[in-house]
């Protein structure tokens, strides 16, 4: 399977509150990559096999089999709390599951599952307010928090900066009741996530903390493409539609093209 296949999610889903294991992330990512460009539905039984995960993630077959089996056991009970409507415009609180049924076929080393109907609009037929990136950017990460943080950052690829409230980030990662100490949260969540992003993704991230009074209340992240790396998601040859997608607010197509060429050395 090509490592250039893309993941596409609505921004509302990227910022949703949920928690998945690394194996569950990989299961969903591989599925979404395999069916890119197709219209998803809640009737189709989608399949993901361990060999595809092993190939893309660079893990042993045994590890892939174990991850896939564990993911099949957990994913059915996972919930998502979305803070906006499917267009990402109206603040609401919606809760639903990822899958409506799932099965693990041990003899074949694969999982079959059906997405839930409420999830489909957040993954399919997206025309605006979405985040897209190649699966190769995250599939080899060994931290589920790194995958989540990476998605939250590349939402802001046009500016290369994002500041988030610590409380909000913990709720988004569905660990609001964990890591009561900010030092533990940084040590066990943020620092390993940044390390994984800097190791495996096409961007280099720096971060700092901000205080309100004596308490750390915000994290500030800045990121840039690694040397000789084009801006995230931009090909070396781009058309007007792609340039407009990555243009900054108020930036003309000509100005955006010139900036992107300077940043990525595209021709």
Tell me what you see in this structure.
- This protein is of the alpha+beta class.
- Helix 3 (50-57) crosses helix 4.
- The two termini are 28 Å apart.
- The chain has helices at residues 11-14, 22-34, 50-57, 61-74, 144-154, 166-172, 182-200, 240-246, 253-264; strands at residues 6-10, 46-49, 79-84, 91-97, 99-105, 110-115, 130-134, 161-165, 203-212, 215-225.
- It contains nine helices and ten strands.
- Helices cover 36% and strands 25% of the residues.
- The model is unreliable at 232-237 (pLDDT under 50).
- The strands form four sheets. A three-stranded antiparallel β-sheet has the order 2-6-5. Strands 8-10-9 form a three-stranded antiparallel β-sheet.
- The protein has two domains: 1-135, Arc Repressor Mutant, subunit A; 141-233, Arc Repressor Mutant, subunit A.
- A hairpin with a 4-residue loop joins strand 5 (99-105) and strand 6 (110-115).
- The radius of gyration is 19 Å and the shape is globular.
Key words describing this protein structure:
267 residues, alpha+beta, Arc Repressor Mutant, subunit A, 2 domains, three-stranded antiparallel beta sheet, 36% helix
